[in-house]
Write a structure and sequence with these properties.
Keywords: Signal. This is Secreted protein. By secondary structure, the chain is mainly beta. The protein has one domain: Jelly Rolls (Sandwich). It is 13% helix and 52% strand. It is elongated, with a radius of gyration of 23 Å.
């Protein structure tokens, strides 16, 4: 005979949790690792630096928008991991914002550095 204070089985709770997770995934919830970091810099000439921790190895999108200045000068940017350049590129000032894709980026802290003349907006996304 079972006593009235016996513990209930936990199967019901786990079933409800599984249904909730499945529903959230079906509705298009963003994965936990997805992130976007943006930084605006002004008062150049200088370097705009943005650092963010990349949760796992994979693709990173870099967006650079250099505004201001009187001529479309070419500026370089680089993405570093532990002081080593893992991705780089060039962008012109006064042109529309440009997005670059860097594949197979390592897990850990990534540091984006972009040169600019007057104003700049940089972003990292994965």
């Amino acid at each position: 005979m079972t006593s009235p204070t016996a513990r209930r089985p936990r199967m019901t709770r786990l079933g409800v949790l599984a249904v909730a997770v499945t529903a959230a995934t079906a509705l298009g919830a963003a994965p936990a690792g997805a992130a976007t970091a943006t930084k605006k810099c002004g008062g150049g000439p200088a370097n705009c630096v943005l650092a963010k921790v990349h949760p796992k190895k994979g693709t990173v999108r870099v967006r650079i928008d250099n505004t201001g200045g009187s001529k479309p000068y070419k500026y370089g940017w680089d993405l570093r991991h532990n002081g080593r350049i893992v991705c780089s590129g060039e962008v012109r000032e006064r042109w529309p914002a440009k997005t670059f894709t860097c594949k197979n980026m390592p897990k850990g802290k990534l540091k984006l550095t972009a040169s600019y003349e007057r104003n700049s907006t940089v972003a990292l996304q994965w």
